[in-house]
Write a structure and sequence with these properties.
Low-confidence stretches: none
Mean pLDDT: 90
Strand order of the largest sheet: 3-4-2-1-5-6-7-8
Helix content: 25-40%
Largest sheet: 8 strands, mixed
Number of helices: 17
Strand content: 15-25%
Oligomer: single chain
Structural class: alpha/beta
Number of strands: 14
Radius of gyration: 21 Å
Distance between the termini: 11 Å
Length: about 375
């Protein structure tokens, strides 16, 4: 099959967001099973990785304002340029584009996130547009969370298939040693490294919450740890100064690092913390748990789904005191020293080959 994937984010090994990593894993799984895949991006570098063609359409240098017609023109005419068997799309922005092609929309934005980013009127419009396609044979919708699949089904009256994201574990492993990585990024190898492997977005992701929790620790407890935030996209740079200032005022060591490859961040991680108040899935949680890293998760529907059947996580209720207590339990009891690979039953739910089959079967 020839498959097109349309994605608004730039894709590379340095990608900090879950959607980008989802696209990389999905595209590679298609290629590994004998399909030809083109991934179209709004920005980034055109390149080939793992047999996947990543194509930058350079949209924002072409136009000052984008609508579906300009987007469609920028991507080219799929019908005449290439005969794709189907298009997998990662934004509802494209609901009115390529309506004559077989399309699968993966919903990466839950209602809370959509309203936070675009407002209630925009969310209502998106729901109304989805309703137009409830009986359309060419258009399918997927949600990676069972909870949000049901929520969108109630809102739109459309059939929303539940397909959990899967993971290519080879992508998040590296042959580099911990010492090599620490030396490269000037990380204190003797401290307990607490990694936050997600975007440094202040409202939904709540990176500040971890720092607030660590500020409650005693000085001797603070001296044991180093917090490493990995998700520095350009639009979040303005939040860095406030985090660094708070850390310095409270004698907490923090670093904000854009790793060359996220596998390096996971290699040095003693603990992962994901303080998000909302996620449509939680790709970073899946990555961390798959590697057997003790992971502290906020008490939200999607993280609770991922935690089922996995004993190596702690759930806290969006509270800095509870988060601090979980951290100290792991640190003081040295629970972080040994990684615990999850059961085969848990891993099978997120098997990369089942992932590819689930998408392909939707359009057969």
């Amino acid at each position: 099959m020839k498959i097109a994937i349309v994605n608004t984010w730039a894709i590379s090994k340095k990608a900090v967001g879950g959607t980008e990593r989802f696209v990389m894993d999905l595209a590679k799984s298609f290629v590994d099973n004998g399909n030809e895949v083109d991934v179209y991006m709004f920005s980034g570098n055109t390149h080939i990785e793992d047999g996947v063609n990543y194509i930058n359409i350079n949209l924002f240098n072409m136009v000052g304002e984008a609508d579906e017609y300009i987007v469609q023109e920028a991507f080219g005419n799929f019908e005449t340029d290439k005969s794709y068997d189907f298009i997998q799309l990662n934004s509802l922005l494209f609901l009115e584009a390529w309506k004559d092609k077989k399309r699968i929309f993966t919903i990466h934005t839950n209602p809370f996130e959509y309203i936070l980013a675009w407002g209630e009127n925009s969310f209502k419009k998106a729901i109304d547009m989805m309703k137009k396609y409830k009986n359309d044979d060419n258009t399918k919708f997927v949600a990676p969370s069972k909870f949000y699949a049901n929520e969108y089904k109630k809102l739109t009256e459309c059939e929303i298939s539940f397909i959990p994201h899967a993971i290519d574990k080879s992508r998040i492993k590296t042959d580099k040693s911990v010492d090599e990585i620490c030396e490269q990024y000037d990380i204190d190898k003797n401290k307990i490294k607490i990694i936050v492997p997600q975007r440094l977005e202040p409202n939904q992701k709540q990176p500040q919450l971890l720092l607030d929790a660590c500020c409650l620790m005693k000085d001797e407890e603070k001296n044991k740890i180093e917090i490493i935030y990995t998700g520095l996209d350009k639009q979040y740079e303005k939040f860095v100064d406030s985090l660094k200032r708070q850390a310095n005022e409270n004698n907490i060591s923090i670093k904000i690092i854009r790793f060359d490859d996220m596998s390096e961040a996971y290699k040095i991680a003693n603990i992962c913390v994901l303080p998000s108040k909302s996620e449509s899935f939680g790709y970073s949680a899946l990555e961390s748990l798959s590697l057997g890293i003790y992971t502290i998760l906020n008490d939200i529907p999607t993280f609770n789904e991922l935690a089922v059947g996995n004993d190596y996580n702690y759930i806290f209720k969006n509270n800095k005191n509870e988060l601090k207590d979980h951290l100290l339990e792991i640190i003081n009891n040295q629970i972080y020293i040994e990684r615990k690979i999850p059961s085969e039953k848990w891993q099978k739910q997120y098997d990369i080959n089942m992932f590819e089959n689930s998408y392909i079967n939707m359009i057969k």
